[in-house]
Amino acid sequence: MSEQIIGLHDWFQTPAGQYLLRWEDVQLQSAVADIFGYHALQLGVPQLHGLRANRMPHQWLGMPTPEPVPGASALRTALVTDYAALPFSACSLDLVVLPHTLELSADPHATLREVERVLVPEGRVVICGLNPASLWGLRQRRARALQRLGMGDLYLPDCGEFIGYWRLRDWLRLLSFEVEEGRFGCYRPAVRSEKWLERWAWMDRAGPRWWPIVGAAYFVVAVKRVRGMRLLGPAWKAVPARAGASVPVAQRSQPNGYAQE
Question: Can you say whether residue 206 is alpha, beta or left, with left for phi > 0 and alpha for psi between -120 and 50 degrees?
């Protein structure tokens, strides 16, 4: 009987899912450790404690439903919220972590707009996503084609639309975010067993050098930029410089009584 993996949370329990979580955990802890402020929020995927290395005093985990998630560790204060309508005032959060949140959202662009609203100027958003232009993405597209014929299983979870790295950068740019950091990882082929994943471990060392943009996952850190504004009063025009007054020059007389020309 074929094995069907329905959701992202179940898929995280597989060897490939654990491999992805380990890589993303390293990236998240490295990125958030030096982001300072007072209020931080993670939306979704409690299997990843994305704020563990951050030192902000107020941290929350937002989930779309109140049901417990299998495999999730004990986390901080949690809240149930719609990702496109966060219960925070504008410009109130210093950091928002989105581990696969956009992929799981019914309207990822609306979610990203809401994140932009609640972030303070110079606040940061950290995003993890699956790369459709990778070996894993190619296998997923092939499996979906076979499933239409009643054959094969999906390798990745069937939970929404995977967002390409360059498409995400375009969205961030339209919302006045500036990408500070972007990288790819998880270059091992789309195999299911832990044994075969370990056999291809050398690809994680060769991938960033030989095929850097085809990693199975990507990681992005972006900062919210707010352009400066200066109010102009009624005297904004440059005042023309006044011409200097003429000053008579004393002339020294010559011994013959005539002035020197």
Answer: alpha
Mean pLDDT value across the chain: 84
Angle in degrees, CA 157, 74, 95, rounded to 5: 75
Instruction: Kindly provide the residue ranges of all beta strands, DSSP E only, lying in 12-77, ordered along the sequence.
Output: 39-43, 58-63
Sketch the domain layout of the chain as residue ranges: 8-224
Residue 126 pairs in a beta bridge with 97, 221
Q: Residues near 251 by Cβ (< 8 Å), separated by ≥ 6?
A: 259, 260
Task: Please check whether residue 113 is in contact with residue 175, taking contact to mean a CB–CB distance below 8 angstroms.
Answer: yes
Cα torsion at 141, 145, 150, 151 (round to 10°)? -60
Residue 137, token pair as written in the block: 């993405």
Structure tokens at 199: 């056999």
Using DSSP's 3-state secondary structure scheme, residue 170 falls into helix
Pairing type for strands 119-130 and 217-224 reads: antiparallel
CA 116 to mean position of chain CA atoms: 11
Fold classification of 8-224 (topology level): Rossmann fold (3.40.50)
CA distance 12 to 4: 14
Name the DSSP letter for residue 163. Answer: P
Length of the chain: 261
- The yes-or-no verdict on residue 245 having pLDDT over 80 is no
Spatial contact of 35 and 94, defined as CB atoms under 8 Å apart: yes
* Mean pLDDT within 21-35: 95
For residue range 60-87, what is the model confidence (pLDDT) as tens digits?
999 988 876 655 555 555 789 999 999 9
Computed on alpha carbons and rounded to an integer, the radius of gyration of the chain in Å comes to 29
Phi, psi torsion values for 171, nearest 5 degrees: -60, -45
Quick check: 43 and 98 in contact, CB under 8 A? yes
What is the spatial distance between Cα 4 and Cα 239, in angstroms, rounded to a whole number? 76
